[in-house]
Design brief:
It contains 2 helices and 9 strands, in the order E-E-E-E-H-E-E-E-E-E-H. It is an alpha+beta fold.
Length: about 170
């Protein structure tokens, strides 16, 4: 079954009266199985190994509500939320917590046709789950090491949840 890989950005601004652009939050919606997707936020490139990106789990998205989730993000965040890339892909479960995603074509962001998504049980806690995305990506990111992962992951989850549920 052909699924899609989504790369999205959320533009972050600072200031009450005069909004000043600060940075982007990089978001991925990646197929996990034929029935669902994982919604992930990029933490940064791992300093230990090149082309390995640490991501924090936001939520699991069933196929039936994926389009509703994307429309909801567009409605809630408005111009701040943007889908940069949407590519057809196939997913295969290698083992529990490890997924192989094969892209049908390349783009400016995804520069290799294969991606491996691995759940990092040792770095995860009950409040956050860390996944490593192994792929050649063309992103402007900061490097992170395993010591700073916990603090950054919790901060990103809190920021996204605060923005989404703030009404």
């Amino acid at each position: 079954m052909t699924k899609h890989v989504y790369y999205c950005i959320l533009k972050n601004y600072k200031g009450i009266l005069k909004k000043k652009f600060v940075d982007f939050t990089h978001l991925f919606i990646l197929p996990r199985t034929d029935e669902d997707y994982l919604y992930l936020s990029l933490l940064g490139e791992r300093s230990e190994v090149s082309d390995v990106f640490a991501c924090v789990y936001i939520t699991r998205v069933p196929n039936g509500i994926l389009s509703n989730l994307i429309e909801g993000e567009k409605d809630y965040f408005g111009d701040r939320f943007e889908i940069v890339d949407e590519l057809p892909a196939k997913v295969k479960t290698i083992e529990k917590g490890t997924y192989l995603i094969n892209l049908k074509k390349l783009s400016k962001i995804f520069q290799s046709k294969e991606m491996v998504l691995i759940y990092q049980q040792k770095e995860s806690t009950t409040k956050k789950r860390i996944y490593n995305l192994i792929s050649k990506l063309n992103l402007q990111t900061n490097e992170v090491d395993s010591l700073s992962l916990r603090m950054i992951a919790v901060k990103n989850i809190e920021l996204i949840n605060a923005l989404r549920f703030k009404k």
